[in-house]
Specification:
alpha+beta; 2 domains; 3-stranded antiparallel β-sheet
């Protein structure tokens, strides 16, 4: 049975170790949150994990007073509309006998769940890149980008990715911090046994 003095000493040690335990837990959460939420994000946004996994920058943890802040920055990118995620399909236009356009042609893509026809757009570069003509002439052409990943946070499925990462981070932190706290308490027990 520990004496009141030993109990007070252990409590002080645990109280002192809690901020360090929280920082260690947050560092592990930062590393694991993306991997743990890949499947859910893919299901909800149709983004391929490699499109967002490598674009996350983990910032060093900052401590200021009672607050401990862990940041993860998501770098924006715009995938080309030739990607499978946009379901691109070339559509031929139709003209009447006088040469007037009855049905415009171009590239049909799915953006945010809606099919959209982009006139004067086509797929080139052996199916890898979507382009659009800037005039009626064959050239110049420019690469056709889809909505940026930053806009994925602002589309009709507002904040899906942020919400998934947030809930995953919360779950992971609870697991990691419980583990760290148990280590702190068990370290005190070992010291008493000695």
């Amino acid at each position: 049975m520990p004496t009141p003095k030993q109990v007070a000493k252990n409590l002080r040690r645990i109280e002192k170790g809690i901020p360090k335990a929280a920082i260690r837990s947050l560092k592990r959460v930062q590393k694991s949150v993306v991997a743990k939420s890949n499947a859910k994000i893919k299901e909800l946004t149709k983004l391929v994990p490699k499109d967002f996994k490598d674009r996350i920058v983990i910032k060093s943890i900052k401590t200021g007073g009672p607050q401990i802040i862990a940041k993860m920055i998501y770098k924006s990118f715009s995938p080309n509309l030739a990607r499978k995620m946009f379901k691109p399909k070339m559509v031929k236009g139709k003209r009447d006998k006088q040469g007037k356009i009855i049905k415009p042609g171009g590239l049909k893509v799915t953006i945010y769940g809606k099919r959209k026809l982009i006139e004067r757009a086509f797929i080139g570069n052996q199916g890898r890149t979507a382009f659009i003509r800037t005039s009626r002439r064959p050239k110049p052409i420019i690469s056709l980008k889809g909505p940026s990943s930053r806009r994925q946070f602002l589309n009709k499925n507002k904040n899906i990715m942020a919400r998934v990462w947030g809930s995953t981070a919360e779950e992971r932190f609870h697991i990691e911090f419980t583990h760290e706290y148990n280590r702190l308490v068990s370290a005190g027990k070992k010291n008493r046994q000695r």
